[in-house]
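@channel sequence for tomorrow's demo:
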Amino acid sequence: MSHPQSPWPFEQPEQLGELLREQGASPEERADLLPALRRLSEWQAPQPEPADTRRLLARLTPALRAPSPVRQAIHAHQQRRHANVSLLLATARAQVSLFGLGFWLVSALVTLVGSVVVLSKILSDQEVVLRASGPLLAYLGTLVAFRGKGARVLELELVCPPSPLQLVMARLVIVLGYDVGLGLALGLALWAGGAEHVLALTLSWLMPLLLVAGLALLLTLRLPVQAAASLAYGSWLAILTICSTTNLQALLLTPELSVLPGCIGVVLLAIALLRLHADMHRLLPRP
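structure tokens (generated this afternoon):
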């Protein structure tokens, strides 16, 4: 058996001879090789000096393949773009094609219907209409933007130059940018139509939208996209119904707290983005 403190695993000549025999060495060859192998256990490799390392690298460098100038240029270009939002915007521009015409039209139609209902004053509580219809855009946006998870194409997205986090952020930019733009258009339409408290009505549209978007994205890390979006939007509708039919509306849906759902939604979006990278291995489909 080998000595416990020796780095050499074969201390006994019998062990070395058996090893050589397994390698096909003849008895004469084993007799010649055994002394040399025994001396290996006593040999101490010299420690190279920094000058020796530099000389070795200088000898090896000419034999290495020269780096591609094209790859170097692409890498340098990407490094410069990582420092600003241009890469995110470029990725978002490329992702726009994933959103069909139906998404743009349905979202605009929901906004139009909401503005018509508020301006016509069909219902006495106009803010409830906006609080219910605004998050509907987040529900639709989540279904369209992240439907690829259900289509099992995550492996394909992982081989794309943008990271999964960049892809998610780019799609959020598209969805939330379009929804916020529709919210601003809604506020402008309400102002032009002579509605009162335009800012409060606009916040009633935008803040729940951010809340449902953040909750839906966070839930997609654990649930299918359809279930996550439905649960997020359904939970908000349940809360809205309870508040509207009880005295809780005076406490939870006051103008002073109108920005609270939006703040919570932004926090949920941040948590979801931070958890995305850590949960990426679990999101991969199982064979």
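heads up for whoever presents: Residues 1-8 have pLDDT under 50 and may be disordered.
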